[in-house]
Design goal:
Bound molecules: flavin-adenine dinucleotide, iron/sulfur cluster, FE2/S2 (inorganic) cluster
Low-confidence stretches of chain A: none
Helix content of chain B: 25-40%
Radius of gyration of chain B: 21 Å
CATH superfamily of one domain in chain A: Succinate dehydrogenase/fumarate reductase flavoprotein, catalytic domain
Largest sheet of chain A: 5 strands, parallel
Shape of chain A: globular
Mean pLDDT of chain A: 96
Number of strands of chain A: 21
CATH architecture of one domain in chain A: Alpha-Beta Complex
Distance between the termini of chain A: 41 Å
Order of helices and strands of chain B: EEHEEEEEHHHHHHH
Largest sheet of chain B: 5 strands, mixed
Radius of gyration of chain A: 25 Å
Low-confidence stretches of chain B: none
CATH architecture of the largest domain in chain B: Orthogonal Bundle
Number of helices of chain B: 8
CATH topology of the largest domain in chain B: Fumarate Reductase Iron-sulfur Protein, Chain B, domain 2
Strand order of the largest sheet of chain B: 2-1-5-3-4
Oligomer: heterodimer
Structural class of chain A: alpha/beta
Mean pLDDT of chain B: 96
Helix content of chain A: 40-55%
CATH superfamily of the largest domain in chain B: Alpha-helical ferredoxin
Number of domains of chain B: 2
Chain lengths: ~675, ~260
C-alpha cells in the first residue's frame, strides 16, 4: 500500500472542486483568532496566502529573507499570467487550459489539480484587477492578451514585461494592508533554518534574524512553505541570487517527501553566458517568441564568418537561414513549449551552428515582424503608400518598443548590443523547477500541518511547465485553494484544542516552550558554528560554482546513465570536501551574507544528489527530463507510460539514502498520447 | 557573449565599511586588476569579495537579489550618484564598460536618516513598507472581485497608472535628495491608485494616511529640486509629486480632523 494518499475528491472532473469546496469543514471566526499560521515566503504564493488567511481571521506570521516582502523572486517574472477567460473569443475554455497544461506537462501531472487550477484562473485576474494591478489594456478599455508557448489561443494577461512585478505588488499591498491591521506579523530578513515537528505534526520553525544573527523560535498550528524553486542548484540560472531550497529541504529531511526532483525547466531564450565571472543569467521573456523568429545559419562558412566578426547576421539572405523550429514543428513553429525549443537549440549548437564565440547561441530575430507585420500595419493606418524599408523599420520599431521595450533595454544593458538593429543572441538556461515538495489535493505535504504552495510544491506542471502558468499557480494556491483546504486540517486542530483545553501542557499553551523547539534551535546553532569553525581554504561561492557545473553538464538538458552515475559520486565527494574545507568568515551574531549562503549551498549539495538519483531512476524522456537513451530517431523525447506514469516521491532516510514512493497517475478525462507539436 | 569588444580594467575602489548601525564607518581602499568590461558592477564586487575571503578578510556586505533591475534590492551610491553614472538603470544593471581603465570608484550606502545602515552597503528600508501599510492598497478581500472586464479602463489611464506602478521601491530617490524626501516613492503609489477607478473609494484617506506615515518615518520635505526624478532607475515622473500634492490639498480641505 502506498504511503501516498492524494486525497483527490470523488465525482466528475468538472465538479470535484466545487463540490469538495462546499463540504470542507468551516472554522468559526472565534476559533480562527486563536489559530496561528506560519507562512515561509512572500512571493506570489506566500503573499497571497498570507493576505487571504489574515482576511479570514487567522493570525499569520510571514517570513522572507529579503529586506521586504515586495522583493520576492516573483517580482522578476516578465511575460504574463494565463487565465481561461476567453476574452478574445478564440475558443478558449477551462477545459482547453486544463488540456494544454496536462499535455504541456507531458502527461505527468495530476488531472484533478490541473483542472482546479484552470477553474480558478479567471478569478485570479478578477482579484488582481480589483486590487488595482495595471494589466495591459486595449484602446477600448478591455484587457489585452498575448500568446505563449504550447497554446494556440491568446490567454496570457500581462503588464508590459513586468507582469510578475505588478502581480506581486498587488499581493504585497494586500499583505501590507493586513500588516497594518495587525493580523499579519511580517518578519523580513529572517530565514527559516529548521522545521519543528511535535508528535509528527508541523508546529513551527526556527528562523535566523539575518541582521542580528539571533535564532528565534516561532510556533504555528500550520506551516506553509512558499519558498520558491531550487533552480539555483545549477549555480547559473534565471533565478534571483538568493533563491534557494533550504526551507523545502529542511522540511524534506523532517519527513516531507520530495517529488520529481529531476524535473527542471531549461528556458530556451536567455542571454548567453559571457564569461567566468557570470553570476546569473537573464531571461528574455517567452513573449518575445510571439514576434521573434529563431534561426541559425544554414551554412557552416557563414557561422565561421560570424564568429570571426567578419559577417553581420543581417547580411545573411533568408534562404541561407535555418528557421529550425518552423522547419521541425510547422504547427507551432516558434511557439513550441520550452523543453522542445531548448533541445532544438542545443541540437543546432551541438551540430556546430552556434553563432557566438563559444558556439552556444542562436538568433532571436525581430526584423521580419518589425518591418513586415507592424511596419506595414502602421503604414496602412497612417495611409503611407509604398513605404520604404527604412520607413517600415522605423514604424515597426515603435510598436516593438511599446510591447517589449524594457526587455530590449535589459538586453542592451547586459550585452552592449542594440537588439533593435541586430538579432538577439540567446541560449537555454535553467529557469524553473517543476519538482518540489509532494502535496496532496489540499496542498498538504506528507507531514500533517505542513503545506507547500507555489514553485515549492510539485503539483500542477508535470514534467514541463507552460509559460505564464507559474504565476497562475502561485496565486491560485494562495488566493483560492489554501484558504479553503487549510480548513480540513485546522478544523481537526480546533477539536483537539477544545479537548485539550484543560491540559496544562497542551501545545497551544506551551508553544515554543516545548522542549522540541530548544532541541532544534541547538542543532541549528551547532550547524552554524560548524560552518564558522571549519576555517578551510575555499569560498562558499567556489563550491556552488563547482556543483553547478556538475549539475549542468550531467543533469542538465540531456542526461544519460553514465553521466548521472558519475555526477552522484562527484557531488558526494564535493559535499565531503565542502564540510572539510569551506571558509566562512565573520561571526554568527551579525549580518553575514556569506554565512547565509553557506547554509543554502550545503543544502544544494544534498538536493543535487537526489536530483541525479531521480533522473537516473526515470528511464524515459518526458518534458524537461531528457534521457539520451530514450529518444525517437528524429531526436524527440520518448515517454514510457507503461512503466513511468507516476509521481516519484522520495523519502529521506539518512545521508545519501532516499526511498522511492510512487503515486500512480490516472488519466480519466484526457487520452494520454504522444505529445506532438508538429 | 558580451559586446564583442571586451577589455580589462585596473581600478581603485573606495568602499564604505561599517560594522553595524551602532559603530562609525570608514572608507577602505582596494585595488582590482583585470576586471572585464563585460562584467556587471556587482560581479566586480563578487570578484572583490572572493579576493577578500582568500585573504581572510571579511567580505563586503551589500544588498542584491534579482540582478536584473526589478527587485529593488541593490542600492549602491557610486561616485556620488545612486545606482552609478548611467541613467535609468539600477546598480545591478550597471556594467563595467561604463568605466575606464585607471578609474577610482567610490561606493557608499544610501545615506538618509530614515534608512539606517545595517552593515557596509546595506541599509534598512522598512520605512517604505510601513508607508505602504498605511494606505498603499485597495481594500478588497480575496473573493470579492467582479469580472475583470466589467471595469473598463482607458488605455491611456492604464498606461499612466502602470508607469507609476513601475517603482521598484529601491530608495534611490531618497538617497539622492538633499532633504532625504520620499515624495517620489509615495507619490508613485498614490498616483497609480488615484488614476484607476479601483482606487477611488479610498482616494482621500489614502493620501492623508500615507503622507502622515511618511512624515512619521523621518523623511524630509520636498523642495522640488528634481534630483529624485533624474536618478530614479524606473523613470518615475516628478509629475506624480505634483499630482500627490493636489490630492493632498483636495483631501485635506474636504476631510475633517486630518
Ligand atoms: C526571470 C523569470 C521570469 C519568469 N517569468 C514568468 C512569467 O512570465 N510567467 C509565469 O507564470 N512565471 C514566470 N516565472 C516563474 C515564476 O516567477 C515563479 O515560479 C514564481 O514567481 C514563484 O513564486 P513563489 O511565490 O512560489 O516563490 P518566490 O517568488 O520565489 O518567493 C519565495 C519566497 O520565499 C522566501 N524564502 C525562501 N527561502 C526562505 C527561507 N529559508 N526562509 C524565509 N524565507 C524564505 C523568499 O524570501 C521569498 O519571499 C519566471 C521566473 C523567472 C526566474
Ligand atoms: S521612485 Fe524611483 S528611485 Fe524612488 S523608490 Fe521608486 S524606483 Fe526607486
Ligand atoms: S538586484 Fe534586483 S534590482 Fe538590482
Amino acid at each position: 500500500m502506498s504511503k501516498l494518499d492524494s486525497k483527490i475528491p470523488e465525482g466528475s472532473l468538472d465538479q470535484k472542486w466545487t463540490k469538495y469546496r462546499s463540504t470542507i469543514p468551516l472554522v468559526n471566526p472565534a476559533n480562527k483568532r486563536s489559530l496561528e499560521v506560519i507562512v515561509v515566503g512572500s512571493g506570489l504564493a506566500g503573499a497571497s496566502a498570507a493576505a487571504s488567511l489574515a482576511e479570514m481571521g487567522y493570525q499569520v506570521k510571514v517570513f522572507c529573507f529579503q529586506d521586504s516582502a515586495r522583493r520576492a523572486h516573483s517580482i522578476a517574472a516578465q511575460g504574463g499570467i494565463n487565465a481561461a477567460k476567453n476574452y478574445q473569443n478564440d475558443g478558449d475554455s477551462i477545459y482547453r487550459l486544463f488540456y494544454d497544461t496536462v499535455k504541456g506537462g507531458d502527461y505527468r501531472a495530476r488531472e484533478a489539480n490541473v483542472h482546479r487550477l484552470a477553474e480558478v484562473s479567471g478569478n485570479i485576474i478578477d482579484q488582481c484587477v480589483a486590487q488595482g494591478v495595471p494589466l495591459a489594456r486595449e484602446y477600448g478599455g478591455l484587457l489585452s492578451n498575448r500568446s505563449f508557448g504550447g497554446t494556440q489561443v491568446q490567454r496570457t494577461f500581462y503588464a508590459a514585461g513586468q507582469t510578475g512585478q505588478q502581480l506581486l505588488l498587488g499581493a504585497y499591498s494586500a499583505l501590507q494592508r493586513q500588516v497594518g491591521t495587525g493580523m499579519v506579523t511580517m518578519l523580513a530578513r529572517h530565514e527559516m533554518l529548521e522545521l519543528v515537528t511535535i508528535d509528527g505534526k508541523a508546529r513551527g520553525i526556527i528562523a535566523r534574524n539575518l541582521i542580528t544573527g539571533e535564532l528565534e523560535k516561532h510556533f504555528g498550528h500550520a506551516v506553509l512553505i512558499c519558498s520558491g524553486g531550487y533552480g539555483n542548484v545549477f549555480y547559473l540560472s534565471t533565478n534571483a541570487m538568493g533563491s534557494n531550497a533550504t526551507a523545502a529541504w529542511k522540511a524534506h529531511k523532517k519527513g516531507a517527501f520530495f517529488a520529481n526532483p529531476c524535473y527542471t525547466q531549461i528556458h530556451p531564450t536567455c542571454i548567453p553566458v559571457s564569461g567566468d565571472h557570470q553570476s546569473k543569467l537573464t531571461l528574455m521573456s517567452e513573449s518575445l517568441r510571439n514576434d521573434g523568429r529563431i534561426w541559425v545559419p544554414k551554412k557552416k562558412e557563414d557561422v565561421e564568418a560570424i564568429r570571426a566578426g567578419k559577417l553581420n547576421p543581417n547580411q545573411i539572405k533568408p534562404e541561407d537561414r535555418d528557421y529550425y523550429l518552423e522547419r521541425r514543428y510547422p504547427a507551432f513553429g516558434n511557439l513550441v513549449p520550452r523543453d522542445v525549443a531548448s533541445r532544438a537549440a542545443k541540437e543546432r549548437c551541438d551540430a556546430g551552428y552556434g553563432v557566438n564565440k563559444t558556439g552556444q547561441a542562436v538568433y532571436l530575430d525581430f526584423a521580419h515582424n518589425m518591418k513586415y507585420k507592424y511596419g506595414k500595419m502602421e503604414a496602412t493606418k497612417k495611409g503611407i503608400q509604398n513605404p520604404t524599408e527604412a520607413q517600415l523599420e522605423a514604424l515597426g520599431m515603435d510598436v516593438i518598443k511599446e510591447k517589449y521595450g524594457n526587455l530590449f533595454d535589459m538586453y542592451e544593458q547586459i550585452t552592449g548590443v542594440n537588439p533593435y538593429k541586430n538579432p538577439m543572441q540567446i541560449y537555454p538556461a535553467v529557469h524553473y523547477t517543476m519538482g518540489g515538495l509532494w502535496v496532496d489535493y489540499n496542498l498538504m505535504t506528507t507531514i500533517p500541518g505542513l503545506y507547500a504552495l507555489g514553485e515549492a510544491n510539485f503539483s500542477d506542471h508535470g514534467a514541463n511547465r507552460l509559460g505564464a502558468s507559474a504565476l497562475m499557480q502561485g496565486l491560485a494556491d494562495g488566493y483560492f485553494v489554501i484558504p479553503y483546504t487549510i480548513g480540513v486540517y485546522l478544523s481537526t486542530e480546533v477539536t483537539r484544542m477544545s479537548n485539550e483545553k484543560d491540559k496544562a501542557d497542551s501545545i497551544d499553551k506551551v508553544k515554543t516552550k516545548h522542549p522540541e523547539f530548544d532541541k532544534e534551535l541547538a542543532e541549528v546553532k551547532a550547524r552554524i558554528d560548524k560552518f564558522l569553525t571549519i576555517k578551510g581554504t575555499q569560498s562558499v561561492e567556489s563550491f556552488h560554482k563547482r556543483l553547478g557545473k556538475i549539475m549542468w553538464d550531467k543533469c542538465g538538458m540531456a542526461r544519460n546513465k553514465q553521466h548521472l552515475t558519475e555526477a552522484i559520486k562527484e557531488i558526494q565527494d564535493l559535499r565531503a570536501e565542502f564540510w572539510k574545507d569551506v571558509r566562512v568568515l565573520g561571526t554568527a551574531d551579525e549580518f553575514n551574507p556569506d554565512l547565509e549562503k553557506a547554509g543554502r549551498v550545503a543544502d544544494f549539495l544534498e538536493l543535487g544528489e537526489l536530483m541525479c538519483k531521480d533522473a537516473l531512476h526515470r528511464e524515459e524522456s518526458c518534458g524537461g527530463h531528457f534521457r539520451e537513451e530514450h529518444q525517437t530517431e528524429e531526436g524527440e523525447a520518448k515517454r514510457d507510460d507503461v512503466n513511468f506514469a507516476y509521481v516519484a516521491a522520495w523519502e529521506f532516510k539518512g545521508e545519501s539514502n532516499f526511498e522511492l514512493h510512487k503515486e500512480e497517475l490516472k488519466y480519466e478525462n484526457i487520452k494520454i498520447a504522444a505529445r506532438s507539436y508538429k | 557573449m558580451g559586446s564583442g569588444n571586451e577589455q580589462f580594467l585596473n581600478l581603485t575602489l573606495k568602499v564604505w565599511r561599517q560594522k553595524n548601525s551602532k559603530t562609525a564607518g570608514t572608507f577602505e581602499t582596494h585595488q582590482l586588476t583585470g576586471i572585464s568590461t563585460d562584467m556587471s558592477f556587482l560581479e566586480m564586487f563578487d570578484v572583490l569579495n572572493e579576493k577578500l575571503i582568500h585573504e581572510g578578510k571579511d567580505p563586503i556586505a551589500f544588498d542584491h537579489d534579482c540582478r536584473e533591475g526589478i527587485c529593488g534590492m541593490c542600492s549602491m551610491f557610486i561616485n556620488g550618484r545612486p545606482h552609478g553614472p548611467k541613467q535609468g538603470i539600477t546598480t545591478c544593471q550597471l556594467h563595467m564598460r561604463s568605466f575606464k581603465n585607471g578609474d577610482t570608484i567610490i561606493v557608499e550606502p544610501w545615506r538618509s536618516a530614515a534608512f539606517p545602515v545595517i552593515k557596509d552597503l546595506s541599509v534598512d528600508r522598512t520605512a517604505f513598507d510601513r508607508i505602504i501599510s498605511s494606505g498603499g492598497y485597495v481594500s478588497v478581500n480575496t473573493g470579492n472581485a467582479q469580472d475583470a472586464n466589467n471595469i473598463l479602463i482607458p488605455k491611456s489611464a492604464a498606461d499612466e497608472a502602470f508607469a507609476a506602478a513601475a517603482c521598484i521601491g529601491c530608495g534611490a530617490c531618497v538617497a539622492t535628495c538633499k532633504n532625504g524626501s520620499a515624495m517620489l516613492f509615495v507619490s508613485a503609489k498614490v498616483s497609480q491608485l488615484a488614476l484607476l477607478p479601483q482606487g477611488q473609494a479610498e482616494r482621500k484617506e489614502r493620501v492623508l494616511n500615507m503622507i502622515a506615515q511618511m512624515d512619521a518615518e523621518g523623511f524630509g520635505n520636498c523642495t522640488n529640486t528634481g534630483a529624485c526624478e533624474a536618478e530614479c532607475p524606473k523613470g518615475i515622473s516628478i509629475e506624480n509629486i505634483a499630482r500627490m500634492n493636489r490630492e493632498f490639498i483636495g483631501a485635506s480641505l474636504t476631510t475633517p480632523n486630518k
